[in-house]
Amino acid sequence: MSDAPVPRKRGPQARAARNDQALLEAAREVFVTQGFDAPVAAVAERAGVGMGSLYRRYRTKEELLQRLCADALERLARAAQTGLGMDDPWQGLMHYITECVRFGFGALAPLAGAVEITSRMQEAADRAQGATGALVVRAHTSGVLRGDVTAMDIALLIGRFSQPAPAPTPQDEEHIRLRLLRIALDGLRSHHTEALPAPPPDPRGYEAMWNRETGT
Fold it and tell me: Are the beta carbons of 151 and 198 closer than 8 angstroms?
Protein backbone atom coordinates (compact mmCIF):
# COMPACT_ATOMS: atom_id res chain seq x y z
CA MET A 1 0.00 0.00 0.00
CA SER A 2 1.32 3.44 -0.91
CA ASP A 3 2.15 5.86 1.93
CA ALA A 4 1.64 8.86 -0.32
CA PRO A 5 -0.55 11.52 1.31
CA VAL A 6 -4.08 11.98 0.02
CA PRO A 7 -4.20 15.20 -2.01
CA ARG A 8 -6.08 17.97 -0.21
CA LYS A 9 -8.93 19.68 -1.97
CA ARG A 10 -8.16 23.22 -3.05
CA GLY A 11 -9.97 26.24 -4.44
CA PRO A 12 -13.60 25.81 -5.53
CA GLN A 13 -13.58 22.10 -4.65
CA ALA A 14 -12.49 22.78 -1.07
CA ARG A 15 -15.01 25.62 -0.78
CA ALA A 16 -17.79 23.32 -1.99
CA ALA A 17 -16.80 20.65 0.55
CA ARG A 18 -16.84 23.22 3.37
CA ASN A 19 -20.23 24.52 2.28
CA ASP A 20 -21.62 21.01 2.13
CA GLN A 21 -20.36 20.21 5.63
CA ALA A 22 -21.78 23.50 6.92
CA LEU A 23 -25.14 22.59 5.40
CA LEU A 24 -25.13 19.17 7.04
CA GLU A 25 -24.21 20.59 10.45
CA ALA A 26 -26.87 23.27 10.09
CA ALA A 27 -29.47 20.72 8.97
CA ARG A 28 -28.71 18.53 11.97
CA GLU A 29 -29.09 21.46 14.38
CA VAL A 30 -32.26 22.79 12.76
CA PHE A 31 -34.08 19.48 12.41
CA VAL A 32 -33.14 18.21 15.87
CA THR A 33 -34.17 21.43 17.62
CA GLN A 34 -37.13 22.45 15.43
CA GLY A 35 -38.33 19.08 14.19
CA PHE A 36 -38.12 17.51 10.75
CA ASP A 37 -40.99 19.68 9.50
CA ALA A 38 -38.70 22.73 9.71
CA PRO A 39 -38.24 24.50 6.34
CA VAL A 40 -35.02 24.13 4.41
CA ALA A 41 -34.80 27.93 4.40
CA ALA A 42 -33.94 27.68 8.11
CA VAL A 43 -31.11 25.30 7.22
CA ALA A 44 -29.69 27.67 4.61
CA GLU A 45 -29.90 30.57 7.04
CA ARG A 46 -28.18 28.62 9.82
CA ALA A 47 -25.44 27.53 7.40
CA GLY A 48 -24.95 31.05 6.06
CA VAL A 49 -25.56 30.09 2.44
CA GLY A 50 -28.23 31.09 -0.08
CA MET A 51 -31.14 28.91 -1.09
CA GLY A 52 -29.61 28.59 -4.56
CA SER A 53 -26.47 27.08 -3.04
CA LEU A 54 -28.56 24.63 -1.02
CA TYR A 55 -30.66 23.52 -4.00
CA ARG A 56 -27.57 23.05 -6.17
CA ARG A 57 -26.48 20.36 -3.72
CA TYR A 58 -29.85 18.94 -2.73
CA ARG A 59 -32.74 19.22 -5.16
CA THR A 60 -35.31 18.28 -2.53
CA LYS A 61 -35.65 18.24 1.23
CA GLU A 62 -35.71 14.44 1.11
CA GLU A 63 -32.30 14.39 -0.61
CA LEU A 64 -30.94 16.55 2.21
CA LEU A 65 -32.43 14.23 4.86
CA GLN A 66 -31.04 11.18 3.06
CA ARG A 67 -27.57 12.73 2.98
CA LEU A 68 -27.93 13.62 6.66
CA CYS A 69 -28.76 9.99 7.48
CA ALA A 70 -25.86 8.68 5.39
CA ASP A 71 -23.45 11.09 7.09
CA ALA A 72 -24.68 9.99 10.53
CA LEU A 73 -24.28 6.30 9.66
CA GLU A 74 -20.78 6.92 8.33
CA ARG A 75 -19.88 8.63 11.60
CA LEU A 76 -21.36 5.68 13.46
CA ALA A 77 -19.17 3.28 11.50
CA ARG A 78 -16.05 5.39 12.11
CA ALA A 79 -16.74 5.51 15.87
CA ALA A 80 -17.13 1.72 15.97
CA GLN A 81 -13.95 1.18 13.94
CA THR A 82 -12.02 3.52 16.25
CA GLY A 83 -13.34 1.56 19.22
CA LEU A 84 -12.18 -1.69 17.63
CA GLY A 85 -8.72 -0.16 17.26
CA MET A 86 -8.42 0.25 21.04
CA ASP A 87 -6.66 -2.52 22.93
CA ASP A 88 -9.11 -2.54 25.85
CA PRO A 89 -12.49 -4.01 24.76
CA TRP A 90 -14.41 -2.11 27.44
CA GLN A 91 -12.77 1.23 26.62
CA GLY A 92 -13.44 0.60 22.93
CA LEU A 93 -17.13 -0.05 23.57
CA MET A 94 -17.40 2.98 25.87
CA HIS A 95 -15.73 5.18 23.26
CA TYR A 96 -18.20 4.05 20.62
CA ILE A 97 -21.30 4.63 22.75
CA THR A 98 -20.10 7.97 24.11
CA GLU A 99 -19.15 9.32 20.67
CA CYS A 100 -22.53 8.30 19.23
CA VAL A 101 -24.33 10.02 22.10
CA ARG A 102 -22.21 13.18 21.75
CA PHE A 103 -23.04 13.26 18.06
CA GLY A 104 -26.73 12.69 18.76
CA PHE A 105 -27.14 9.79 16.36
CA GLY A 106 -30.40 8.62 17.92
CA ALA A 107 -32.06 11.97 17.26
CA LEU A 108 -32.56 10.87 13.63
CA ALA A 109 -34.83 7.99 14.67
CA PRO A 110 -38.05 9.88 13.75
CA LEU A 111 -36.96 9.67 10.09
CA ALA A 112 -37.58 5.91 10.11
CA GLY A 113 -39.97 5.18 7.27
CA ALA A 114 -40.12 8.83 6.23
CA VAL A 115 -37.30 8.78 3.66
CA GLU A 116 -36.36 6.21 1.05
CA ILE A 117 -33.16 4.31 1.83
CA THR A 118 -30.42 5.15 -0.65
CA SER A 119 -27.53 2.90 -1.62
CA ARG A 120 -25.16 5.18 0.29
CA MET A 121 -27.32 4.90 3.42
CA GLN A 122 -27.46 1.10 3.09
CA GLU A 123 -23.72 0.74 2.55
CA ALA A 124 -22.97 2.95 5.57
CA ALA A 125 -25.53 1.07 7.67
CA ASP A 126 -23.95 -2.28 6.73
CA ARG A 127 -20.48 -1.02 7.71
CA ALA A 128 -21.76 0.41 10.97
CA GLN A 129 -23.69 -2.76 11.81
CA GLY A 130 -20.67 -4.95 11.12
CA ALA A 131 -18.27 -2.87 13.19
CA THR A 132 -20.74 -2.49 16.04
CA GLY A 133 -21.41 -6.21 16.09
CA ALA A 134 -17.68 -6.87 16.24
CA LEU A 135 -17.35 -4.48 19.19
CA VAL A 136 -20.08 -6.30 21.09
CA VAL A 137 -18.69 -9.77 20.29
CA ARG A 138 -15.22 -8.71 21.44
CA ALA A 139 -16.62 -7.27 24.67
CA HIS A 140 -18.57 -10.48 25.30
CA THR A 141 -15.60 -12.70 24.49
CA SER A 142 -13.31 -10.79 26.85
CA GLY A 143 -15.90 -11.06 29.63
CA VAL A 144 -16.38 -7.32 30.24
CA LEU A 145 -19.93 -7.05 28.87
CA ARG A 146 -22.81 -8.86 30.52
CA GLY A 147 -23.83 -11.78 28.36
CA ASP A 148 -27.51 -10.85 27.99
CA VAL A 149 -26.81 -7.43 26.44
CA THR A 150 -27.17 -7.31 22.66
CA ALA A 151 -26.05 -4.87 19.98
CA MET A 152 -29.68 -3.78 19.66
CA ASP A 153 -29.78 -2.95 23.38
CA ILE A 154 -26.77 -0.71 22.88
CA ALA A 155 -28.31 0.96 19.81
CA LEU A 156 -31.46 1.75 21.80
CA LEU A 157 -29.38 3.04 24.72
CA ILE A 158 -27.62 5.42 22.34
CA GLY A 159 -31.00 6.54 21.02
CA ARG A 160 -32.33 7.30 24.49
CA PHE A 161 -29.33 9.37 25.48
CA SER A 162 -29.16 11.19 22.13
CA GLN A 163 -32.31 13.17 22.89
CA PRO A 164 -31.71 16.65 24.35
CA ALA A 165 -33.05 17.15 27.87
CA PRO A 166 -34.08 20.35 29.71
CA ALA A 167 -31.15 22.07 31.43
CA PRO A 168 -30.17 25.65 32.39
CA THR A 169 -27.56 25.84 29.63
CA PRO A 170 -26.46 23.64 26.69
CA GLN A 171 -23.20 22.96 28.54
CA ASP A 172 -25.14 21.80 31.63
CA GLU A 173 -27.26 19.55 29.41
CA GLU A 174 -24.22 17.87 27.91
CA HIS A 175 -22.56 17.40 31.31
CA ILE A 176 -25.71 15.87 32.83
CA ARG A 177 -26.26 13.62 29.82
CA LEU A 178 -22.69 12.29 29.91
CA ARG A 179 -22.84 11.81 33.69
CA LEU A 180 -26.05 9.76 33.45
CA LEU A 181 -24.64 7.87 30.47
CA ARG A 182 -21.62 6.83 32.52
CA ILE A 183 -23.97 5.54 35.24
CA ALA A 184 -25.91 3.59 32.60
CA LEU A 185 -22.72 2.20 31.06
CA ASP A 186 -21.73 0.73 34.41
CA GLY A 187 -24.93 -1.34 34.18
CA LEU A 188 -23.54 -3.03 31.06
CA ARG A 189 -20.61 -4.54 32.93
CA SER A 190 -20.47 -8.28 33.35
CA HIS A 191 -20.33 -8.20 37.17
CA HIS A 192 -24.08 -7.54 37.23
CA THR A 193 -25.75 -10.93 37.61
CA GLU A 194 -29.43 -10.07 38.08
CA ALA A 195 -31.39 -11.02 34.96
CA LEU A 196 -32.78 -8.28 32.77
CA PRO A 197 -36.58 -7.88 33.12
CA ALA A 198 -37.55 -8.55 29.49
CA PRO A 199 -36.31 -10.44 26.43
CA PRO A 200 -33.86 -8.68 24.08
CA PRO A 201 -35.36 -6.46 21.37
CA ASP A 202 -35.65 -8.01 17.92
CA PRO A 203 -33.56 -5.93 15.49
CA ARG A 204 -35.72 -7.05 12.55
CA GLY A 205 -38.62 -4.97 13.81
CA TYR A 206 -36.49 -1.86 14.04
CA GLU A 207 -34.97 -2.44 10.62
CA ALA A 208 -38.47 -2.76 9.16
CA MET A 209 -39.34 0.68 10.53
CA TRP A 210 -36.94 2.21 8.01
CA ASN A 211 -38.84 0.64 5.12
CA ARG A 212 -40.99 3.43 3.72
CA GLU A 213 -43.86 1.08 2.89
CA THR A 214 -43.87 -0.35 6.41
CA GLY A 215 -43.66 3.10 7.96
CA THR A 216 -46.68 4.48 6.16
Answer: no
Residue 176: other Cβ atoms inside 10 A: 14
Whole-angstrom Cα distance, residue 144 to residue 80? 17
What CATH number is given to the structural domain containing 120? 1.10.357.10
pTM value? 0.80
How many C-beta atoms surround the C-beta of residue 83 within 10 A? Answer: 26
What are the Cα distances from residue 35, in Å, to 28, 111, 156? 10, 10, 20
Distance of alpha carbon 86 from alpha carbon 101, whole angstroms: 19
- Domain span at residue 202? 69-215
- Which amino acid, residue 125? A
Taking 80 as the threshold, does the pLDDT of residue 10 lie above it? Answer: no
Per-residue model confidence (pLDDT) at position 127: 93
117-120 long-range Cβ contacts below 8 angstroms, 24+ apart: 117/210, 117/211, 117/212, 118/66, 118/70, 120/66, 120/67, 120/70
29 & 86 share domain: no
pLDDT in tens, 38-56: 999 999 999 888 898 888 8
